[in-house]
Amino acid sequence: MAYNGFKGIGPKKLGASPLKQLKTPSGYKAGDLIDETDHDNSFYHSSSSKGNIGGTDYNVENLSEIQEDKQGQYMTSLDESETTIPSESRYGTNRPKRKVTNYNQGYKRDRDTLRPVKGKRFKKN
pTM of the full predicted structure? Predict the structure, then answer.
C-alpha cells in the first residue's frame, strides 16, 4: 500500500519538494524592464551625477529597458514623451542622444545612464 493508503500517491509520485522547486535569483536580460522592487532596493552608478545614486532617485517609468554594451548592462533616463514600449515610441529603441525632461531630472537635462554599482549585470532579488 502506498502513502496515505491511496495507490499511486506518495512522495515519489508528487515530484520535488516545494523548497527544491524554488529558483535562485537570476539576472535580467537585455530588453527586460527592471522590477520596481528590485529598482527601489538597488544602487547605480550615474553618468550625470558622477557617483552612485539610490534606486529611489528615479521612478521606473522614467527608465528605459535594460540595454547591453561592452561595459555591461545599463538603463537610460527617458524623456516624458518617450515610452519603454518601442512600438509606442516614435523613436523605437534608437533614442536620439539629447536632453530629456522628466520629473526626476528636471527640464532639459542630459540623458542619464545608470549601471550596476557591483558587477556588469542587474540582479533580480
Answer: 0.70
